[in-house]
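hey can u check if this looks right to u? its 263 residues, i copy pasted from the old doc so theres a chance i mangled smth
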Amino acid sequence: MTSPSTQPATAPPPTAATVGATVGAAVRLEEVHKQYGGTPAPVPALRGVSLTLPTGSFTAVMGPSGSGKSTLLNCAAGLDVPTSGRVWVGGEEISALAPDALTRFRREHVGFVFQDYNLVAHLSVTDNVQLPVMLAGKEPDLAWQAELLAEIGLTGMEDRRPGELSGGQAQRVAIARALFSRPTVVFADEPTGALDSRTGTDVLTLLRDTASRLRQTVVVVTHDPRVAAASEQVLLLADGRLVDRLDAPTAEQVTARMLTLGR
């Protein structure tokens, strides 16, 4: 691929065929459009985005403010419904599901890690981690829970409440909760945004390495080139369109390409 410094501004956008392979796909979008507002002037947030992310991949999504990053995450995760187009998670076309069925599907097949952790303040670490499984009406796998908490570095903190944790520890709980149900894909929205640089790097490395060992698919939306550089590939959005892809990126490459998009 042409380096970011020489990539022409008019380069054709990646297609579903060039962003991953359909076989073994964890996430697939086909010509997804999303508009907000009604007539006479709806605001387009996504404009025909197509992509396929293979199982076990670690992908970062970047772009200038207003490029459609959060909308892409919301549509891919089933938190929002595309105006047109189709979305699959695993083998399920979630864009065709009724609201109740979509809610049940998300509980069982989609994990979330957010910037502000989204932990329940009055619940313990253990209860927060188990929460999605309990809401799905399933019995938690206690052996898997112990293994995961050890993997994440939370052994001995099982009975603590979120208020008794540091920011880095709280985000580790959020990561454990996202991974506990062994979902098809984990979506992370600015997962290190509320952390200092060193803690953020530690948490991101933990998420990447743990996901790799578990063969877990992760999609991270970020504005931070250092976060993006920890991924296997970076997908770049501009004006609601998928315009570029960087494989095995460095922070310098990501920064250079983002500056180009900004101009």
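The beta strands are 25-36, 43-54, 58-62, 84-89, 92-93, 110-114, 185-189, 217-221, 233-238, 241-247.
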